[in-house]
Specification:
The structure holds 2 protein chains of 2 kinds. Chain A is of the alpha/beta class. Chain A contains 9 helices and 19 strands. Chain B is built from 6 helices and 15 strands. The chains are: A alpha/beta, B alpha/beta.
Chain lengths: ~350, ~260
């Protein structure tokens, strides 16, 4: 009974793949997937092209058209670049108050544009900016909102989106029910779409003079954080909450000391404890690294950390928790207590060196 | 000044979860430990710090959860919050962020809070949505991932720094009332004091039956849950510690890491 009701609702909302467009009295509503392109220092962030990949997948499954929306103080170059390399039509809104990101203005302008487009899906990157404005935008659009989307699938003519929960130990598949769904997409989950297109998309440039009322942006400030050298290291040994006590950091340092061009790093909880400086934090709000070897010690594998290290050449994970999500992305898994395993490893190394 | 802090009780991250294949529901296994979501401790501490700097401030800590969640309210009051508010959920199971935010919004909308604080993200479902959804439902300006805040009550605003990528900070001012989601590391959460804990036990939280609050239509549904696939080989080393360590060293040598 419930299922029947659900599929009826889905087909009404165009989720079931079909060529049928929904007609209104005097216009044809084009159903769309809209990508909100984030940009930084005059360039679209690389993740924009990962969103393009997902948008194409959804577009093909549900016969939807693709569109990109760009907001900013300077949008001409960025929108031109996206339209040329992807072939997708771009709506670009220029507003001089958007020299830096402003949540209120983002939500106001996007609501204005998107309420007219009535998209089926709105895609935003899971960056500190995407996660800041997109849920609120969903409320304004009376849309659903799914964060941390890392896969798309289809079942019985319906499409669903997957996301991780419980420190990455469980994946849940979510079925959109509403007319519009905002998807906040995990970095690195989709391959960037190749930048080739024979026909460039159109750029629809709009000028806005709207100003925020309750949120005043005062610019970007660099935190006092010196370079940690993490980006250059060949080998990174990283500590997570599983190290238990501060004194165990010595083990991490000693292990790192065996490798040339190595560095130690930490997950956020370690830095929050004050056990390591924030400059050594790997993850969403820290540094993104891609060393040849990454040794994760006592790290659970929540995406806040793994987005920062999933590009490593070879990953070794050590944890007492056999179900830790980090083991799903490791090349070598060691289910051991690092406080005894690392000393054993050091001993084995010394034996061999003799 | 009136502050509302939204907190959640979560599982110990080492909890083993079992997926019931027939229903797709997720259940913790064995003896489960629960505690206050890590980021929420920082939100409570920030509220207490504001209270100490602005005498006369009232801090209400609110949670949505089953009976067991009363423990986190006790802890918040133990840390120095004035009152606990428990939106009592019967039974366990997934509740969507929109439903949770809507419940909190219907509780908060006529209670004239000047500031609402929440943790940046709950460790269990990792949605990071309840804060920004709640702000929008109440038409409040909102900043997420806040790593520094300076409340200027007389000016009717709060000065905020949001932590963004690459070690940078987005600096802004929000007109009060406003909602902030607090990033971990913004302060050093204190331990509950004994006298406050005793007070918490005595005064009990204000319990609200969710039946009395309006419900929203769900906009997405959990179809099923499963274990994640592997993105790499995941060779599991076997044997005793010495054997595992020797195997690992051989691997490192073979790959010329060491």
């Amino acid at each position: 009974m419930k299922k029947k009701h659900l599929s009826k609702r889905l087909s009404e909302n165009g989720f079931v793949a079909s060529r049928a467009a929904s007609y209104t009295a005097n216009r044809v509503m084009k159903r769309t997937v809209v990508i909100i392109a984030e940009h930084n220092e005059g360039r679209a962030i690389p993740m924009t092209y990962e969103l393009v990949t997902l948008a194409h997948k959804i577009g093909e499954a549900c016969s939807l058209e693709l569109k990109v929306v760009v907001l900013g103080a300077e949008v001409e170059t960025i929108s031109g670049e996206i339209a040329t390399t992807t072939g997708i039509d771009v709506v670009a809104v220029r507003n001089t108050s958007l020299a830096t990101y402003n949540a209120e203005l983002y939500k106001n302008l996007l609501t204005e544009i998107l309420s007219l487009m009535e998209p089926n899906f709105v895609l935003a990157p899971q960056t500190t900016r995407g996660i800041d404005f997109a849920p609120g935008l969903a409320v304004r659009l009376k849309a659903g909102c799914i964060t941390g989307v890392n896969a798309m699938g289809g079942k019985e003519g319906k499409i669903y989106f997957s996301r991780s929960a419980y420190n990455g130990k469980i994946v849940s598949d979510l079925l959109p029910l509403g007319k519009t769904t905002v998807l906040i997409v995990e970095p690195g989950a989709f391959k960037p779409h190749p930048k080739i297109s024979s026909f460039p998309g159109n750029v629809d440039l709009r000028i806005s003079t709207a100003e925020p009322e309750k949120t005043k942006s005062l610019g970007i400030k660099s935190a006092e954080r010196e370079d940690s050298g993490l980006a250059e290291a060949d080998v990174i040994v990283a500590a997570g909450r599983g190290i238990g006590e501060r004194k165990n950091l010595v083990l991490i340092e000693r292990l790192a000391g065996l490798f040339p061009r190595s560095a130690v790093a930490g997950s956020r909880p370690i830095c929050d404890q004050g056990w390591m400086a924030y400059k050594s934090q790997v993850g969403l709000t820290g540094t993104t690294v891609s060393p040849r070897l990454y040794i994760a010690c006592g790290i659970s594998g929540a995406i806040q950390h793994t987005v920062g290290m999933q590009g490593a050449g070879f990953i070794v994970a050590i944890s007492t928790d056999p179900n830790a999500a980090i083991f799903n992305m490791a090349d070598v898994c060691i289910v051991e207590d690092l406080t005894s395993f690392i000393p054993t490893f050091l001993e084995v190394y010394q034996e061999k060196a003799k | 000044m009136k502050i509302l802090v939204c907190i959640k009780q979560v599982h110990d991250p080492e909890t083993i979860f079992r997926v019931d294949e027939s229903t797709g529901s997720v259940k913790p296994e064995g003896h489960v430990k629960y505690w206050m979501n890590h980021a929420d401790e920082f939100a409570v501490e920030e509220a207490i710090l504001i209270k100490e700097a602005h005498p006369g401030t009232i801090v209400d800590a609110l949670t949505v959860g089953p009976d067991r969640a009363a423990r986190v309210l006790e802890r918040a009051v133990g840390m120095g919050a004035d009152n606990g508010v428990h939106l009592l959920v019967t039974g366990e199971g997934y509740i969507s962020p929109l439903t949770i935010a809507s419940w909190i919004a219907s509780y908060a909308f006529d209670r004239e809070y000047d500031l609402i604080l929440a943790g940046v993200m709950a460790e269990d479902h990792m949605n990071g949505q309840v804060g920004p959804l709640l702000a929008e439902l109440l038409s409040l300006p909102c900043a997420t991932s806040v790593i520094f805040e300076d409340l200027r009550a007389k000016g009717g605003m709060v000065h905020v720094e949001r932590e963004i990528e690459g070690g940078l900070r987005d600096v802004l001012e929000l007109a009060l009332p406003a909602l902030l989601t607090v990033q971990t590391g913004i302060n050093k959460p204190r331990y509950p004091s004994l006298s406050n804990l005793l007070r918490a036990k005595e005064q009990k939280a204000f319990v609200i039956d969710l039946e009395t609050l309006p419900s929203v239509e769900e906009r997405e549904e959990v179809l099923s849950s499963h274990y994640p696939g592997k993105s790499r080989i995941g060779m599991v080393l076997e044997g005793d510690q010495w054997k595992k360590a020797s195997q690992l060293l051989q691997l490192f040598e073979k790959k010329a890491f060491i």
